[in-house]
Amino acid sequence: MEQQLTFYSYPSCTSCRKTKHWLKAHQIEFNERHLFRETPTREELKYILSLTTEGIDEILATRSQTFKNLNLNIEEMTVNEVLELLIEKPKLLRRPILVDNKKLVIGYNPGELLKLSKKKTVHQSA
Predict the structure, then answer these.
(1) What is the reported pTM?
(2) What cystine pairs are annotated?
């Protein structure tokens, strides 16, 4: 059984709204989770990290004011410390985050969303 697409979003985020509109327009089912009210668990974050190609840099919002205010050197932190930080301060996560059983899309990226759409379409027609 295929895991449904999970869409971590924040309603006032422009990229999240664009992504949600795109998903609906392409009739892709998803389970939306408010990133700050339903923060990803440690296990979910580990899974998201396992799908990245660039590790933490791919999901960390380094340009955010929250990140800048912390004045941290992520490179010196352990994975567990980073996970705890992301759970405590989910604003440090880039958004939106879309994840299913084998695919991860970060941000509004129509090209990547299209790949996700094609994968879903192929699966549904089989």
Answers:
(1) 0.84
(2) 13-16
